[in-house]
């Protein structure tokens, strides 16, 4: 967040709220969706969760598809509690898609799946992350498969229960575009699963690598650009006062790169 925003704010949370709000307003109609981290706002206490509620509601009103990353459940009981909370009719956070992890096993995914059946919300499950040390565990071989492929196989079997009218399941995968060969295998194996490509803001990621996740019609995936947008003012080496405009310019560059690598029919 630019220092100039903090200078006119009473707290970090207040500054971040206005920073996020201005980006939402400026990028309306330019990007289809936005992701919020529940844990990040929860760290700011009750005021943080209230800010999250206000931001998600505003994003919905502006027409964004709102993704919310759930806290990591450490037990089946926690997963069930989180599912009850986020899919409750009175849930204060407006979202369309909940993002959760795969590595608790089906105990950590099933509670959400059961809620989907009576909801108009969807689920994305993280199977491969883009951080530097991810291969240490996620790319280990187990029974002839990489660990993240085994996780994807399990999620795919569950996802078949909720295939929609357009041919895609309401349960999708989150994967890292930096692992290009992995994406090609995942797409060929799971034609009915939607992919969210995280970590596009990592140095080893390109639009060409992302293209492997899209189907032959240029559908079936979305790219999460992260700090390439929110920190575009840093890359442009400005003082940050123009952060919203720099974000818009970054979106245009990313879109040009993606459409140059992905043919949409």
UniProtKB/TrEMBL annotation:
Domain of life per record: Bacteria
Gene3D superfamilies: Aldolase class I
EC numbers: 4.1.1.23
Keywords: Decarboxylase, Lyase, Pyrimidine biosynthesis
InterPro entries: Aldolase_TIM, OMPdecase_type-2, RibuloseP-bd_barrel
First-tier enzyme category under EC: lyase
An annotated GO BP: pyrimidine nucleotide biosynthetic process
PANTHER family the record matches: OROTIDINE 5'-PHOSPHATE DECARBOXYLASE
Protein name per Swiss-Prot or TrEMBL: Orotidine 5'-phosphate decarboxylase
One annotated GO molecular function: orotidine-5'-phosphate decarboxylase activity
């Amino acid at each position: 967040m630019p220092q100039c925003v903090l200078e006119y704010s009473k707290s970090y949370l207040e500054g971040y709220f206005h920073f996020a709000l201005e980006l939402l307003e400026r990028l309306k109609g330019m990007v289809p969706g936005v992701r919020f981290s529940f844990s990040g706002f929860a760290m700011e206490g009750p005021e943080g969760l209230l800010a999250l509620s206000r931001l998600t509601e505003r994003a919905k009103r502006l027409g964004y598809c709102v993704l919310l990353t759930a806290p990591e459940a450490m037990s089946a009981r926690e997963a069930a509690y989180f599912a009850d909370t986020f899919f409750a009719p009175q849930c204060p956070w407006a979202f369309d898609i909940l993002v959760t992890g795969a590595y608790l096993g089906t105990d950590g995914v099933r509670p959400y799946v059961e809620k989907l059946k009576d909801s108009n919300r969807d689920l994305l499950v993280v199977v491969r992350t883009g951080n530097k040390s991810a291969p240490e565990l996620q790319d280990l071989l187990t029974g002839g498969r990489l660990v993240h492929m085994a996780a994807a196989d399990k999620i795919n079997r569950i996802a078949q229960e909720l295939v929609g009218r357009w041919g895609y399941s309401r349960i999708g995968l989150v994967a890292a575009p930096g692992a290009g060969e992995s994406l090609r295998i995942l797409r060929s194996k799971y034609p009915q699963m939607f992919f969210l490509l995280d970590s596009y803001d990592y140095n080893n990621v390109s639009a060409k690598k992302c293209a492997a996740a899209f189907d032959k019609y240029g559908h079936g995936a979305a790219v999460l650009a992260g700090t390439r947008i929110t920190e575009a003012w840093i890359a442009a080496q400005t003082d940050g006062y123009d952060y919203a405009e720099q974000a818009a310019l970054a979106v245009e560059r990313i879109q040009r790169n993606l459409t140059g690598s992905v043919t949409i029919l």
